C-alpha cells in the first residue's frame, strides 16, 4: 500500500499550485463571486495558533466555495505599521522597517507552509508607500469635505505608548495595547467625523449577518439617545449651557446645575473669585481619579460651587452651578440640569451639600411625596406637580409638550444625542502614515497638494530621544509652504494604524493601481466581503472604523455598497489546559518552570503551588506568551504535517467555539487521517459488478454525507462536517469487508476525497492523483446529492436501521456481553402502526396522556391490548420526537430487515434472526413498536 508522506506531498503540491497559478483570480462577470477574508495580521514574527485557526477556517471556506463554482477572491496582507516595531527600534537600534520586513517574511513563510489558497499577487501591506499614500489621499479628501478637522480637546494620553489614543482604544480606563492607565490631556489633535455617520452606522447593523453580541456592542458604543436640549443662560456672563436631558418633564424640579470638572468654563467662572482655590483643588483631585470609575454609580458624588447661577428657561429660577465628578465632559453639553427629587445621583449630591429637593412628579397611586422626607429619588412615572401649566399632565406626555414649549420660545427642543465621539486619528509616533499637513506661520494649516503625495517617512529619523522621532528628522520637518513658498514645518503626527485596516479589504480588489485607491469596476465586482473571519477583540475598534470608511469612500463615489462585511464569524479562542491553583486563584506562572516555558511536562501528582502548597488542577488558559503555554503551529507541521494541523484545529471544535489544544488529540486525528488514506487507497480483495439490496445503505450514507457536509460547510459548522465525513468512512470500511459493488465503492472513495479536500488539501490532491485523475482536486466540481437515494421516507427507514444498531450496542454494554451468540429482532404487529401514527398526531395537537388513553380504550379492537398500550403511551408521550412510523405495516418492515440481513450481521458481527411479533413466542415481543423492533440478545 502507498505510504502517507505528508512532508513530501505537501511541499510538492504547494509547488504545483504555485506554478499552475490555480488560485490567482480575475474578475469575471459571467461567474458568481465570493469574497472570503480573514483579518490581516499584525506581523509580530511567527504565526501562532490563533492565526492557524483563523486562516484554516477561511481557507476551508474559500476552497469549498471554489469547488462550488464561485469565483473566489481570497487574499492575504499585513497590517504592518504599529508601535512594537518602533519600540524594538528604540531598544535594539534596528530601523522599524527592517524588523517589520523580516517579520512579514517569516509569517508569510509559515502561511505558505500550511498551504493556504491565497492569491498572493494581491498582497497588501500598509507600510508600502503605494498603500499609505491612499491613506493620505483619503485624509485630504476628508479635510476638503470637512470630515477631518483639528481641534484642541481633552484627549486620552497613554504614557506607555507616549501617544494619544482614540476613545475606542481605551478599555476600562486602560490602553488597549499596553494596558497603561490612560490620562486626560488637553491637546490639539486631528479627528475624523465618525459622528456624522452615527445614525447610518446604527441602522446598517440590522441587516448584517453578524454575531448578535458584536452588533449589541456597536449599538451601545454608538449610544443613540433621544431627548431634549434646554438652554440655561449663565447669569452675569454671555454664556449659555445647552444641556441635554432625557427627562425634560422634570425641568421645574431643577434645583442646581452640575458641570464636568474639566469643562473649560469652570475655570473662567471662578477666575479671581473666592471660589477659585477650592475649585482648582477639586479639579486636581478629579483628574487623579480614574475617569471610568468616577462615573460609576457607587462612587461618591462630589462637587464644589462655582459662584455662578443659571436661569431656568421656563420659570426663570436662579439655580447654583457646581462642578462635579460624575458628569462626562464631551457628552451632551458636559453639564446637567440636576433634579434631586427624580435622579439618584443628583439626590445624593443634593443631600451632601444641603441643596433643596423639589418634587415635581407625584406617584399615580395618590401618595404625596415631600422632598425633605425622601430617602431616595423617585424615578418612576407619575403626574406632574408644581410645574405651572403642565401640572396634572402625565410625565411621559409632558416630555413632548415641554420640548415643544422650549422650541416655541427659542430655548431648545427635541434632539438626538450619541455617545460616540469623533475618531481621534493622530498619533505622536513614527511608524505610521504621515498626516499630509503643513503648518505655515503666514498661511496657517495648509494641506499637502494631492500631486505631492505620498509624504514619505524619512530614513533619518532618530529613535530613542524623547517625543516623536519624526520631530527629530530635519529632512522631514522642513518644507516650503505650498501656498506662499516660505519656510514651513510639517505635521509630525502620523495616523492611527486603525486607519490602515479600515479599507485594506477594498484595496485587495485592485492592489496594483497607481492613480486611484482602487478601481471602481473591480471593487464593485468583488465587494463587499461575503465572509469575514477574525477575533472578537475587534468588535468595536476595527469593525466600526471599517464600516465608517466604507461609507466615506462610497460617498466619495468610489463604489456603491454600504457595508464592508456581509457576514462575520468571530472565531473562538485556542486554549491549553494549564496548572491552576484554586485557592490562590491563579495559573502556574511561567517562571516556575525551569526552562521558562510550560511544556506540559509538569508533574501534576508531585508538584504543588509555589505560594500556598496546594495541588494544581488543569484549567483551560488562553495560549499566551505570559503563561508560556504557547504551542507553535510550526512544531506540529514538522511532526505531523500541515494537513494534520489543519484537520485537528477544524476537528477540535466548531469555529465559533473555544477549543483546547491537545497533542494527544492531534496524534489521534493523525491516525484517523491515516486510516482514511488507507481506505481510499484500498483495493478490496473481491468486488462485484452486480447490485445488491444492501448497497442501499451505503448509497444512503453517501448521499446523506454529501447533503449534510454541504450544508455544514455553508453554515461554518466545520467540525460537524468533519464528523459526518469520519462517520461515513467508518461505514465504508465495513462495506469494504462485504464484497462491495466495484463502481459504488470507487464512487464512495472519490467522494470522500472531495469532501475532505477543503480541510486537508494536500493529502486529497495526492489521493486524487493516485486514483488516476488529472490535477487538481482543488478545482473539481463539488458533488451534488441525488434525492433518489435520500428523501424523507428512505431516511426514516435507515434511521430505524441505525437505531437498531445503537440499541443493540447499548444493551450489550448494559448486560456486559461482548460477542452475543444470537440476536433476535422482533418486528411489531401491524395494529401498532396505525395506533402509533394516531398517537403521534394527537400529541402534535396538544393532547395529553389521559386523552390518548381514553381515545385508545374507546376502540373495541384495541381494548384487549390495554396494558401494553398504557406502557407505549408512556414511552411515546415522554419523547415523541424519537418515534416515527417508517413502514406501513409489519410485512414491509419485516421485508426491509430481511433484505438487509447480511448487512446487519456484518455490522453486528453475529447471527441475527428476524421474526414477526405475530410469529414469536419471545417474552420481549410485546415491546416492539413500529420502527423500533424488540430485541432479544443471547
Ligand atoms: C435631567 C434628568 C432628570 C435626567 C432625571 C435624568 C433623570 P442618556 O440616556 O445616557 O443619554 N446627562 C446628560 N449629559 C450628561 C453628561 N455629560 N454626563 C453625565 N450625565 C449626563 O442619559 C441622559 C441623561 O444623563 C440626562 O437626563 C442627564 O440627566 C444626564 F430625573 O437630565 B438627565
Ligand atoms: Zn504659507
Segments where pLDDT lies below 50 for 5+ residues?
591-597
* Average residue pLDDT: 92
Distance from N terminus to C terminus (CA atoms, Å) equals: 40 Å
Tally of alpha and pi helices: 29
Number of strands: 34
Specify the structural class: alpha+beta
The percentage of residues in β strands lies in 15-25%
Largest sheet: 7 strands, mixed
Bound molecules: ligand ANZ, zinc ion
Q: Any descriptors?
A:
single chain, 938 residues, alpha+beta, seven-stranded mixed beta sheet, four-stranded parallel beta sheet, 34 strands, 38% helix, binds ligand ANZ, binds zinc ion, Leu-tRNA-ligase
Mind explaining what this structure looks like?
The chain has 938 residues and is of the alpha+beta class. The strands form 10 sheets. Strands 10, 11, 12, 13, 14, 15 and 18 form a 7-stranded mixed sheet that branches. A 4-stranded parallel sheet has the order 2-1-26-27, with helices on one face. It has a 4-stranded antiparallel sheet with strand order 6-5-9-19. The chain is globular and about 110 Å long. Zinc ion binds next to loops. Belongs to the class-I aminoacyl-tRNA synthetase family.
In short:
By secondary structure, the protein is an alpha+beta fold. It is globular, with a radius of gyration of 36 Å.
Tell me the layout of helices and strands.
Layout lengths: L5 H15 L12 E6 L10 H19 L3 E3 L3 E2 L4 H10 L3 H19 L9 E2 L3 H16 L3 E11 L4 E3 L4 E2 L2 E2 L7 E10 L5 H7 L7 H11 L1 E11 L5 E6 L10 E5 L3 H7 L5 H13 L14 E9 L6 E7 L10 E4 L5 H10 L7 E2 L20 E2 L10 H14 L3 E7 L4 E2 L1 E2 L9 E4 L3 E4 L26 H4 E3 L6 E4 L3 E2 L8 H4 L12 H7 L2 E6 L6 H15 L9 E6 L3 E8 L4 E2 L29 E6 L10 H8 L1 H10 L7 E2 L2 H19 L13 H20 L3 H19 L5 H15 L4 H10 L21 H24 L6 E6 L3 H14 L4 H9 L2 H4 L2 H13 L11 H10 L1 H8 L2 E6 L17 E4 L1
Parallel strand pairs: 1-2, 1-26, 3-4, 12-14, 26-27, 28-31, 32-33
Antiparallel strand pairs: 5-6, 5-9, 7-8, 9-19, 10-11, 10-13, 10-18, 12-15, 13-14, 16-17, 20-25, 21-22, 21-24, 23-24, 28-29, 28-30, 32-34
Helix pairs in contact: 1-22, 2-17, 3-4, 16-17, 17-18, 19-20, 19-21, 20-21, 21-22, 25-27
